[in-house]
Design a protein that fits this description.
It is a single chain. It is elongated, with a radius of gyration of 24 Å. Strand 1 and strand 2 form a beta hairpin. It folds into two domains: about 260 residues, Zn peptidases (Aminopeptidase, 3-Layer(aba) Sandwich); about 120 residues, Alpha-Beta Plaits, CATH 3.30.70. Helix 1 packs antiparallel against helix 3, helix 3 crosses helix 9 and helix 7 crosses helix 9. The protein has a six-stranded mixed beta sheet. The chain is built from nine helices and 17 strands. By secondary structure, it is an alpha+beta fold.
Length: about 400
């Protein structure tokens, strides 16, 4: 096998082509077209590299694309590796640069999704091209996965991990980490909190029970819980737990006592925390308030959650990525945690040894988003070198 070299022109052109495609998540913006056009581009790029491609819909109009760079067929002699990036982006409202007209300036590529995470997707394709161009003969398969909907509820990766044919021994999620190796991140739980009152005309105070006022009592207690959460011993990489009251709506007319009030809460969890514990803490607030006022009635309902993620420094894929990054960057990258959630938690829960590494940049979900082109080249090289080292390792030796 010849030396692995990243085709920098291919990488630059690919990230630019991806940014030009509007793939705003339709759940986040009514006019978002979704990932369809991007998926077609990615599938064609994979086929041009000689990969075996699976292009399928998770839900109507919401596709995943999986490309397989097959190993030499001696599965017992090597390990399989999955590379992951998402195709969807957040919206463009408030952007002060053209979102879909990629601009290269001072070594940075600007545009929506540049860092989050079309740059990483381009680096994955460039890494695969480098393996193909070098004639790399890997003992295990490399799966290159481009998924939908990470920016909302990750239906893409959640569906992908249910297919045995897409299972790998390890997964690298290429969310932006500024070239550090991310070994932990927080999870989250979404809650509906409802308070119940009794509707009555505003003049009939003896009949009305104000659900909004009762929600106010709950929120005062919730504020104390939020402050207490941030004082708890933090996870060494992911930090402390937290929560916030994201949405609040109650009442029907200004002259009517509110019969119902709804508050939606996001609780950020750290590795080791369970949903039952977080729910019990909220329920304890309700129970205390109900004990002091028989008219206080409330319900706590968790309706969506994603688990936190953590892996150890002795993980084989963490070691392989760290070693490849050290060789490429000339120094050992730090092991970090992130406060946000990623699809790595889904791959880890499915039994894949998982880690994150991604490019440098700035402006995720913001007015000016960019990715550092040199770091994309480094990322592609690290992914390719990790694939060689990891997939050619024989666990029996």
């Amino acid at each position: 096998m010849s030396t692995i070299t990243i085709d920098q022109d291919y990488l630059r052109d690919t990230v630019s082509a991806l940014i030009r495609i509007n793939s705003i998540n339709p759940t986040l913006a009514a006019d978002g077209p979704g990932e369809g056009e991007t998926a077609v581009y990615v599938a064609n790029a994979m086929r041009q590299l000689g990969l075996d491609v699976t292009h399928y819909e998770v839900q109507p109009g919401r596709p995943n694309v999986v490309g397989r760079l097959a190993g030499n067929g001696r599965s017992a002699a090597g390990r399989s590796l999955l590379l992951n990036a998402h195709m969807d982006t957040v919206g463009v409202a408030g952007m002060t640069i053209p979102p879909f007209a990629p601009t290269l300036r001072d070594g940075k590529v600007y545009g929506r999704g540049a860092q989050d995470m079309k740059g990483s997707l381009a680096a994955m394709l460039a890494a695969t091209k480098a393996l193909v161009d070098a004639g790399a003969r890997l003992a295990g398969d490399v799966l290159v996965t481009a998924v939908c909907d990470e920016e909302y509820s990750s239906i893409g990766s959640a569906d992908l991990v249910t297919y045995p044919e897409f299972h790998a021994d390890a997964a690298i999620v290429t969310e932006p980490t500024d070239m550090a190796v991310c070994c932990a991140h927080r999870g989250y739980i979404w809650y509906n909190v409802e308070t119940f009152g009794r509707a009555a005309h505003g003049s009939r105070f003896q009949e009305g029970v104000d659900a909004n006022m009762r929600m106010g009592r709950f929120l005062a207690e919730l504020d104390r819980l939020e402050q207490e959460l941030r004082q708890r011993p933090p996870h060494p990489l992911a930090g402390p737990p937290s929560l916030h009251a994201a949405r609040l709506q109650g009442g029907s007319e200004i002259s009517i006592y509110a019969a119902h009030c709804l508050c939606q809460i996001e609780r950020r969890t750290i590795p080791g925390e369970m949903e039952a514990q977080a729910t019990a803490e909220l329920q304890a607030i309700v129970d205390r308030l109900a004990a002091t006022d028989p008219t206080f009635r409330a319900a706590i309902t968790p309706f969506f959650q994603r688990e936190p993620f953590a892996t150890g420094a002795d993980s084989p894929i963490v070691q392989a990525v760290t070693q490849a990054a050290t060789r490429r960057l000339g120094q050992r990258p730090p092991h970090i945690g992130q406060p946000f959630w990623t699809d790595a938690a889904l791959f880890a829960a499915a039994g894949m040894d998982s880690v994150l590494i991604g490019p440098k940049g700035d402006g995720l979900h913001s007015a000016v988003e960019w990715v550092d082109l040199a770091s994309l080249v480094d990322l592609a090289a690290i992914l390719a070198e990790t694939a060689v080292a990891y997939c050619n390792h024989n666990p029996a030796t």
